[in-house]
Amino acid sequence: MNQLEVFRESLGQCDEILLDALLMRNRIVEDIMAYKEEHDLPILQPEQEAKQKKWLEGRMEGRRHKNEVAAVFEEITRNSKRIQARKLFDYNIVLIGFMGAGKSTISEFLKTVFAMEVIEMDQIIAERQSMSISDIFETYGEEYFRDLETNLLIEMQSKKNMVISCGGGVPMRERNVVEMKKNGRVVLLTAKPETILNRVKDNHDRPLLEGNKTVPFIADLMEKRREKYQAAADIVIETDDKSELEICEELVKKLRALDSEN
Ligand SMILES: Nc1ncnc2c1ncn2[C@@H]1O[C@H](COP(=O)(O)OP(=O)(O)OP(=O)(O)O)[C@@H](O)[C@H]1O
Ligand SMILES: O=C(O)C1=C[C@@H](O)[C@@H](O)[C@H](O)C1
Ligand SMILES: [Mg+2]
Prior knowledge:
262 residues; alpha/beta; Chorismate Mutase Domain, subunit A; Rossmann fold; 2 domains; 5-stranded parallel β-sheet; binds adenosine-5'-triphosphate; binds (3R,4S,5R)-3,4,5-trihydroxycyclohex-1-ENE-1-carboxylic acid; binds magnesium ion; CM_II_prokaryot; transferase; magnesium; amino-acid biosynthesis; kinase
């Protein structure tokens, strides 16, 4: 064997070790999940991730290839999250609820903790049409916009493990509810009108609320939509005075309970 062949042989041995370690790590991730479920422990423990990051920084301090190694570990962490998410949910999670209920916030949190992909329906529709939602309403009318929503929900049926953050009016059309349920569990986020007002008062991106930022207006519109939202929901989560972590933990628990019934 010449020197080059010796190096390649050694590299191959390193890859074998890495491969075995990765397979073992992935199995342990699944075991941890199963243990947490069995013992009714919180699935989400973000402090663990922070601990692992700190450990790596300590171990790599002043060493060569620090950034390269950090990038590999980031990817390993992301993949562990994906493994967890796939084990927990083999469908899409569809978030519905009133403006300001926290659909986008909780979607982003699910993306962080489970590395799930997020579809912001309003954003995708606006991007694809190269128009703002208000302009689509003004130019083509609400029916046209609702058709775009229906088509996007149908498109999402071929995907798995996505978080779909719906526009506030999506569940108002019955067909949309039928389509979202074909490959998704529907999570209704609720909040009291006072909470909603508090959350949206300084924001100007919600045309329906512009000039109407009062508790009576929000309560009235909420009441008009309540029945349809409730009818669409597989699970409901009240979000008042709860952190993102608490809401997501409740979401995981309730969805798992629902899945074990079916
Ligand atoms: N659980 C929470 N606790 C405190 N603040 C929250 C919570 N959830 C969301 N918020 C805040 O409320 C505001 C509105 O939340 P978000 O944009 O996620 O609502 P949304 O349901 O996506 O609204 P829209 O239907 O208009 O898109 C944001 O500023 C967000 O930071
Ligand atoms: O509540 C609604 O009817 C809407 C909410 C927004 O997300 C947009 O989808 C649009 O402005 C309609
Ligand atoms: Mg949103």
